[in-house]
Every structure is written in structure tokens, then in C-alpha cells.
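Priority: medium. Attachment 1 of 2:
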């Protein structure tokens, strides 16, 4: 009984957060509320649309499961409402991570109904092809952004491998990354596309690499082990 009550409490909290963010996003999308970042139309209560979309993506699998499998009418209606909000708002943010999370989470949430273990080889192949097409579409929609991220991660790995075991400190990550990027292009390894998308970011947009440069590769490995 206690476990059931805790689950209900967590579900209510999750839906309250999700619905609040979804309503805020819809108001921003309709121009009835201002986003917290002038560069983006929809950010919810966040400054950046990426974390906002990922917040909604946390709720989407739960909502999708309730919408399709719940016997409670109120829970079913709430699930459909939340899933619809997510389906509208997440593509607007163009967050690749959130879209991928919704896809994977949605498949897991619906695994009982989809009965993936009994799918024929043909259907599994079709599902695989569809996933590749979606992944390619996500890449093409924001190609320059994706190429920029890949360049940053490539250079950041190089920088992380060269820093001391204790790292360089959080405040020196940007400088260390800048020097590593300079060395990368000076070596002639950079392609024309990489030259076009190169920037001088203050953040490498990957927490593990950021930690590896700031506090050393062992600290990043420790964080990964702790999360796992």
C-alpha cells in the first residue's frame, strides 16, 4: 500500500510539473506570454529550449502509457492531454535529445502493447529503417548545429586527454578548449565544414567532457560510474 501511495504521489507531482510547463509553452507559442530568452519563442520556465524540451520528454512516456493502458478515465484523459502537448511543443524546440528520448521512452512505455518480442523480422527491419530515417531527419534539420557539437566533442576529447589528472579547474575549461581547437586546426585535420561551424564556446555542451577537462578524466569516469 505504501509503495502504491508513493507511486501515485510521484505521478501527481510529475504531471503537475509537466502540465505547468506545457501550458506555459503553449502560451508562449501563441504569443500570450514571453519566453525567458529573446532568441527563442518557446522555453517554458527555462532559459533554453533544450532543457525545457527534455523536461517534457521525462513526462511523455508516462503520459503515453496512461493514455493507452490506464483504466482510469481521468488518468487516461490527463495522459492524452499531456502527450498531445509534448507532441506539439517538443518539435517546436527542435531539441534532438528530447526527440530521441521521446522515441525511446515511448517504445519502452508501449512495449506491452507493441509486444516487441513477437514482432516478425520484417517488422523489426521496418522499425529499424524508420529509426534511421528519423535520426537522419533530426540531423538534417539542424545540420550546422550538429556538426558544431561533434567538432566540440572531438576537440574536447583531445583536450581532456592532455590535461593533468586533477584537471585545469572549471574556470579554465574555455581557455583549455580554445588552445586544443587551435592545435586541431593548425595540424590541418579540420575539414571545411568544421572550419565553418567552429566557434569559441565557453562551454563544450557535454557535461562529462566538461568535467573531464575541469577535474580530470578520472573524475568524469567516477561520475559516469556513480550515475550507472
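Attachment 2 of 2:
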Amino acid at each position: 500500500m505504501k509503495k502504491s501511495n508513493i507511486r501515485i504521489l510521484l505521478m501527481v507531482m510529475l504531471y503537475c510539473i509537466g502540465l505547468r510547463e506545457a501550458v506555459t509553452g503553449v502560451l508562449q507559442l501563441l504569443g500570450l506570454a514571453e519566453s525567458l530568452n529573446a532568441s527563442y519563442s518557446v522555453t517554458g520556465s527555462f532559459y533554453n529550449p533544450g532543457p525545457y524540451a527534455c523536461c517534457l520528454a521525462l513526462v511523455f512516456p508516462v503520459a503515453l502509457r496512461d493514455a493507452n493502458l490506464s483504466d482510469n478515465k481521468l488518468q487516461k484523459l490527463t495522459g492524452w492531454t499531456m502527450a498531445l502537448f509534448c507532441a506539439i511543443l517538443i518539435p517546436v524546440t527542435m531539441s534532438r535529445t528530447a526527440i530521441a528520448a521521446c522515441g525511446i521512452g515511448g517504445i519502452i512505455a508501449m512495449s506491452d502493447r507493441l509486444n516487441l518480442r513477437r514482432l516478425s523480422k520484417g517488422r523489426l527491419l521496418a522499425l529499424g529503417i524508420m529509426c534511421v530515417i528519423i535520426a537522419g531527419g533530426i540531423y538534417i534539420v539542424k545540420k550546422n548545429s550538429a556538426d558544431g557539437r561533434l567538432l566540440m566533442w572531438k576537440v574536447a576529447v583531445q583536450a581532456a586527454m592532455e590535461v593533468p589528472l586533477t584537471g585545469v579547474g572549471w574556470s579554465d575549461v574555455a581557455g583549455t578548449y580554445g588552445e586544443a581547437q587551435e592545435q586541431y586546426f593548425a595540424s590541418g585535420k579540420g575539414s571545411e565544414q568544421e572550419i565553418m561551424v567552429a566557434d569559441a564556446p565557453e562551454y563544450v555542451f557535454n557535461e562529462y567532457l566538461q568535467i573531464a577537462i575541469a577535474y580530470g578524466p578520472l573524475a568524469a569516469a567516477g561520475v559516469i560510474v556513480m550515475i550507472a
